[in-house]
């Protein structure tokens, strides 16, 4: 990726994060989600700049994405596949954007759209979910889906996501143990990335 587009991607992403943190009461009374919508627009711009999904799974849902199968059941250990190379890195960065778009839609009470983005995040990360680069993001996406389903009072579905995220965390800590990468670091320059010592203080 050329330097100029990469700088633009990073700047837009950081601006979107800043807007996402704006408290609702600081928005105009008649537009409580104004900052959220602005953040969403920036995230969509970053997504467009990243291009189509790597590995061209082209947003088709797969059997593994439905609850009760694949990654969302306990007892299915993940294999370690490192997120290396341009295709993998592209998938991970797109997954970060899908995650933040999912959280954004949930924050604005658009739960179905939020669910769709979070599921896309999981699909992009599935094969890399045990890697240091991806485990934290994968767990966060599953936890958010668990919370979403619990708010719908679909306790069985919520429990499936939450138990799956806990199982992945336990497996990662047992087999890998290295401090996981914070998802936002995928849009930082090398100089800006957190030091290993700082990262070790983080929890997934």
Question: What would your notes on this structure say?
Answer:
There is one protein chain. Helix 3 runs parallel beside helix 5. The chain is mainly alpha-helical and 204 residues long. The protein has helices at residues 3-20, 34-50, 85-107, 111-125, 135-151, 155-175, 196-199. The longest helix is centred in the middle third of the chain and has 23 residues, at 85-107. It has a domain at 62-199. Helices cover 56% and strands 0% of the residues.
Order of helices and strands: HHHHHHH
Shape: globular
Quaternary state reads single chain
Helical fraction: 55-70%
The averaged pLDDT comes out at: 84
The biggest sheet amounts to: none
Task: List low-pLDDT spans.
Answer: 56-75
Protein name: Kinesin family binding protein
Region (Disordered): 52-72, 180-204
Biased composition (Basic and acidic residues): 183-204
Organism: Sus scrofa (Pig)
Compose a concise summary of this entry.
With 204 residues, the chain is an all-alpha fold.
Features:
204 residues, mainly alpha, 7 helices
Topology:
Blueprint: H1 3-20, H2 34-50, H3 85-107, H4 111-125, H5 135-151, H6 155-175, H7 196-199
């Amino acid at each position: 990726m050329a330097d100029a587009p990469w700088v633009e991607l990073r700047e837009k992403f950081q601006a979107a994060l800043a807007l996402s943190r704006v408290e609702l009461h600081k928005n105009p009374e008649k537009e409580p989600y104004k900052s959220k919508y602005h953040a969403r627009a920036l995230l969509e711009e970053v997504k467009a700049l990243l291009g189509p999904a790597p590995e061209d799974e082209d947003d088709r849902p797969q059997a593994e994405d439905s609850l009760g199968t694949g990654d969302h059941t306990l007892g299915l250990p993940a294999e370690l596949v490192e997120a290396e190379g341009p295709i993998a890195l592209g998938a991970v960065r797109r997954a970060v954007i899908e995650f933040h778009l999912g959280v954004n839609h949930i924050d604005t009470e658009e739960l179905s759209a939020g669910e769709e983005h979070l599921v896309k995040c999981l699909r992009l990360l599935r094969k890399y979910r045990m890697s240091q680069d991806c485990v934290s993001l994968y767990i966060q996406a599953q936890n958010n889906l668990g919370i979403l389903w619990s708010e719908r009072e679909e306790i069985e579905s919520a429990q499936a996501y939450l138990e799956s995220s806990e199982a992945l965390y336990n497996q990662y800590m047992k087999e890998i143990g290295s401090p996981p990468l914070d998802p936002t670091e995928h849009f930082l320059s090398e100089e800006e990335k957190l030091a290993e010592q700082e990262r070790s203080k983080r929890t997934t």
